Amino acid sequence: MSERERRRRARELARLMAELDEADRRNGLGAWPTPAPQKRRPTGRRTTWVISMVVTAMVLSIVVALHPGSQASAIRRLLGFGPERILAAPELPSGDGSHAFVMTQRDGTTPVGYDPCRTIEIEINPDNAPDDHRDLVETAMRHTSGATGLDLRITGTTDDRPAQRSRVSGRAPVLVAFANEDEWPALEGDVAGVAGSAMMESPSGRRFFVTGSVVLDADLFTDEDVPDASLQAIMDHEFGHLVGLDHVEDPNELMYDENVGLTSYGPGDLRGLAEIGRLPCE
Description:
282 residues; alpha/beta; Collagenase (Catalytic Domain); five-stranded mixed beta sheet
């Protein structure tokens, strides 16, 4: 690390610690006791300095590890204690368009999404699936990951069906499965797929997704008369739901609730996906 980078980190650390102290004062938390000043001794100064630094580092580590505030999370990341993003955060697109979120934080504006510091593991149940189902899933993952900066990875196959996964609580791999309306009534009528994620709330009050499912209409996806581009658009649409996008009333967006021939995310979709992907790490 260069001297310039060390100075920058030191300034950033000082700023964050000041914010942390201010947050403690607002919350009525006591400050750490300050030791009484001692006279310097003519010898052993370097040893004393080293010991002081070690003790300070230990105390600081305890503070940032236990403090629940966002300032402490920032300090943990700065010191290398906290998690870091797996992929780079996306830039916010400047184009116009419509987007909506399935769920928001308590402020009613900030979206709920997956933790960008964790891999979103995906398991596929190949029963009733078309021969090229893996290509469809991988392409949707690539499109969604590119727009959000979230790390999505297939970890294997599973025998689990949607009803089994709907009873799972806590963190678990996302399930991708193919079913008919008899098994999964939400597919009744002309519904081509359904997807969504389960939410948890951290001690600090931040909401985040921990698992989910994507269930596609097996009859539609095995119909050879349906163009591959249409099937891919449906898969991408459902992955948009998985990571947190809701339907919009704009037919120029892929998250429009009807398939009107679009085959890729629209400008509003991309803006919403970028906002989801730029959420802080848990």
